[in-house]
Amino acid sequence: MEENRLISDDFSPELKKQIVEFLSSYVTPNKQHLIEQVLSKRTRHLTVVMEDIFKPHNASAVIRTAECLGIQDVHIVEKSNQYAPNPWVLRGALKWMTVRHYPSSNPNSIADCFRHLKGQGYQIVATDVDQRSVPLSEVDVGEKTALVMGTEHEGISDYVRENADQLVTIPMSGFTESFNVSVSAAICLNHLLTEMRNKGIHWQLTEAEMAELRYRWYSRIPAHAENLISHYMKENGLK
Q1: Assessment of whether the complete model's pTM goes beyond 0.85
Q2: How far is CA 85 from the centre of its chain?
Q3: Are the CB atoms for 91 and 114 separated by under 8 Å?
Q4: Nearest to 23 by CA among 208, 224, 202
């Protein structure tokens, strides 16, 4: 189930384009320019999965980091722990993200997440302190990659460990055995994104993906945007 969906998602691409043009008068030129800049750097080549994160502020910190780095999609898998967004940590990041939520009410949440990712062509890479783990630098960023982060206390589940395509570890030089999960995510995502963008591979969004996000973002900026859109459609005989 995807969060933050608008009731108008069923509109045609052409109608969404018209709505963006209409709403542009309610969006400042500086904001419009920023949206285009962000879209040009956005990616779905890399995504992040959070499995049963224990502390909500850590999960929120991962989402905020992913958004800042240009990642569009985040997957939240609940098991024992439910995710409650922390607005003080997020600083509005969820407004711009696409979040797929796999609730704890589904006993197969992590399996369903993996099935979805595999169907989208992702290789699944999980962070783990395991004898089979390889350095993060060995990940093939030429493939679409889903990075799985486990719980703060226990790490990834046995299911993830057994079904991930690759287990990776972050090289460390100190006495402490692990990083905080949000710090681990920041290190991994920044490394993978840097490698990805330096390899000359196609990591950018398609024109259709950019158009869809442009519509969603414009629809979330003006106050009472749904009322504005409804009025526009009635005025133009579209509803």
Answers
A1: yes
A2: 14
A3: no
A4: 224
